[in-house]
């Protein structure tokens, strides 16, 4: 393993601690009784406290020093006096351990009493401290200039998502998004529970990938010697429970779709689906707008949210627009009664990319997605979808060409999908067969299987039911003003990390010099520090640039070198 100069020094300090008889990773419980937030909210001069956290700053001042500890709820200043923690003649704990062997990022526990500094800072006067964990890598801490402006922050998105553990430490505001995410789940769960609906769990590994139009991930069960599919939706299992006698069931499910990735799609995502017996999609619209009003208030304290340049209000009620009217409004084309050929030509004439694998439903979906979807900023229910787009949805009571379905649009994106659920087993079989034919034509998002067990369940009888699905990741994006789904997932899917190129001893030496600097260095300054001859220097730098380890840039001030 190639180590930077700072990493080597930290390992040397680790060894030094052990030689002093200090275990840098003690196993015993540390009796924390206050957090930084509790200290500040319930501050009493002289109160004794025990706190713990990560060292985020030092101010060494001879016999006395200040440090700042960061715990799960914020930061608190601690004051360490040499003679306080080392009352006897042996001053090693302060002079050696605290001043020389601790680094930014290390965890310590402190016992002490509260006091206020001369400048009014609520602090802890330390009576004793304990090393709890030695950090072997330096944190990429942002720096501030004399005016307080932050620079050199840990802002590279790929690094932040790949090393979320570092992101959360050095960018504590990121944590707020995930706190709000949990508030959203709790608010939604409480809303359902208060109405008597039952939270359940359904299989993630399924013999048939059903309940949605999507490409699944496939695996193999060795013992049963059968293929299995990662869940793309939990709809068909939740409906089985309605058949079994539950009047209302819901689940927060991890779903997996083997499809493209972008700023609004991750191959692993979280959905909520709820099914309520004896209801229809009209009831579900009112239920949904009341649910989201409740959730927005629980997360942000208001029904209003900012998303990019838009101000969105989740207060009920929401506008309702049929899909036919939406397409007619934004394209001038009426899809009513149109054949597949007419829809194909219309879409093609609108400049939409279409192909022969697309049936009526997919063509209508493409027209709506390309020409209409982005126009709906405030929460809007798009209702009454053509039958071909909704194989699990009940036929519209007033128009056999349509279904009783709605999608909720916010800022041009769908965040909820709901039906009056199809409970006619004969009609459902015919819909599945139609989807299978589309799959055979080459539509890889159409249903590729007929779930005969689900059809058997329907034949035992399912009461009238309405179901709702909400994309939880996308909803929290809107509630926290994050345009990228990666920002609301702790660990989004990433490409494999590039393997670090191997470096010679000379290359590693140059790398360490550059890495230890707070900003890019002059090429001449690095060369001077190495003491290499001209030929050795040239050959080493050429090799490092060829392997993209470093890059050299020219400015009016000279040639600079930095790590790539």
From TrEMBL:
Single GO cellular component term: cytosol
Record SUPFAM superfamilies: Class II aaRS and biotin synthetases, Nucleic acid-binding proteins
Gene3D superfamilies in the cross-refs: Bira Bifunctional Protein, Domain 2 (3.30.930.10), Nucleic acid-binding proteins (2.40.50.140)
Primary site of residence: cytoplasm
Co-factor note (free text): Binds 3 Mg(2+) ions per subunit.
Top-level EC class: ligase
KW Nucleotide-binding (keyword) present: yes
Organism domain of life: Bacteria
Enzyme Commission number: 6.1.1.6
Pfam families in the record: tRNA-synt_2, tRNA_anti-codon
GO molecular function: ATP binding; lysine-tRNA ligase activity; magnesium ion binding; tRNA binding
Keyword annotations from UniProtKB, A to Z: Aminoacyl-tRNA synthetase, ATP-binding, Cytoplasm, Ligase, Magnesium, Metal-binding, Nucleotide-binding, Protein biosynthesis
GO BP terms in the entry: lysyl-tRNA aminoacylation
Compartmental location: Cytoplasm
List of residues binding Mg(2+) 1: 407, 414
Domain Aminoacyl-transfer RNA synthetases class-II family profile: 181-496
Positions contributing to Mg(2+) 2 binding: 414
Cofactor(s) listed: Mg(2+)
Catalyzed reactions: tRNA(Lys) + L-lysine + ATP = L-lysyl-tRNA(Lys) + AMP + diphosphate
Family (UniProt): Belongs to the class-II aminoacyl-tRNA synthetase family.
Name under which the protein is recorded: Lysine--tRNA ligase
Organism listed in the record: Flavobacterium arcticum
Encoding gene (name): lysS
């Amino acid at each position: 393993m190639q180590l930077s100069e700072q990493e080597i020094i930290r390992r040397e300090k680790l060894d030094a601690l052990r030689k002093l008889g200090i275990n840098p990773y003690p196993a015993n419980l540390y009796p924390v009784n206050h957090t930084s937030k509790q200290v500040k909210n319930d501050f009493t001069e002289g109160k004794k406290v025990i706190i713990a956290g990560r060292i985020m700053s030092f101010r060494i001042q001879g016999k006395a020093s200040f440090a700042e500890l960061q715990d799960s709820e914020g930061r608190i200043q601690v004051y360490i006096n040499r003679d306080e923690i080392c009352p006897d003649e042996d001053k090693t704990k302060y002079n050696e351990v605290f001043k020389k062997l601790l680094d930014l990022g290390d965890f310590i526990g402190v016992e002490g009493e509260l006091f206020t500094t001369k400048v009014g800072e609520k602090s802890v006067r330390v009576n004793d401290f304990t090393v709890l964990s030695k950090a072997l890598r330096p944190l990429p801490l942002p720096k501030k200039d004399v005016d307080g402006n932050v620079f050199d922050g840990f802002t590279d998105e790929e690094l932040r998502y790949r090393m979320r553990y570092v992101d959360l430490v050095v960018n504590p505001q990121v944590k707020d998004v995930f706190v709000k995410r949990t508030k959203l789940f709790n608010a939604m769960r409480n809303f359902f529970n208060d109405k008597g609906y039952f939270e359940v769990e359904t299989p993630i590994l399924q013999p048939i990938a059903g309940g949605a139009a999507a490409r699944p991930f496939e695996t193999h069960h060795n013992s049963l010697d059968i293929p299995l599919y990662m869940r793309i939706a939990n709809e068909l299992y939740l409906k089985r429970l309605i058949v079994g006698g539950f009047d209302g069931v819901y689940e927060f499910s991890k779903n997996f779709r083997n499809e493209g990735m972008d700023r609004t799609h991750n191959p692993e995502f979280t959905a909520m689906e709820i099914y309520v017996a004896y209801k229809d999609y009209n009831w579900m619209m009112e239920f949904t707008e009341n649910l989201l009003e409740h959730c927005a208030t629980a997360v942000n304290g208001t029904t209003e949210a900012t998303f990019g340049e838009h101000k969105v209000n989740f207060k009920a009620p929401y506008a309702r627009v049929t899909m036919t009217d939406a397409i007619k409004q934004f394209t001038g084309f009426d899809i009513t009664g149109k054949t597949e050929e007419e829809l194909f030509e219309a879409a093609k004439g609108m400049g939409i990319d279409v192909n022969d694998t697309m049936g009526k439903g997919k063509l209508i979906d493409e027209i709506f997605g390309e020409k209409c979807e982005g126009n709906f900023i405030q929460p809007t229910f798009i209702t009454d979808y053509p039958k071909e787009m909704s194989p699990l949805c009940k036929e519209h009571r007033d128009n056999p060409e349509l279904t009783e379905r709605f999608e909720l649009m916010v800022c041009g994106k769908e965040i909820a999908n709901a039906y009056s659920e199809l409970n006619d087993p004969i009609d459902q079989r015919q819909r599945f067969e139609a989807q299978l034919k589309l799959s055979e034509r080459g539509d890889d998002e159409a249903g590729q299987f007929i779930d005969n067990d689900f059809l058997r369940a329907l034949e035992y009888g399912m009461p009238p039911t309405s179901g709702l699905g909400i994309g939880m990741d996308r909803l929290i994006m809107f509630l926290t003003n994050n345009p990228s789904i990666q920002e609301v997932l702790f660990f989004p899917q990433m490409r494999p990390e590039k393997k670090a190129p191997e470096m010679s001893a000379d290359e590693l030496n140059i790398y360490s010099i550059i890495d230890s600097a707070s900003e890019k260095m002059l090429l001449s300054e690095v060369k001077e520090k190495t003491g290499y001859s001209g030929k050795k220097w040239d050959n080493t730098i050429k090799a490092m640039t060829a392997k993209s380890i470093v890059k050299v840039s020219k400015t009016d001030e000279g040639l600079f070198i930095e790590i790539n």
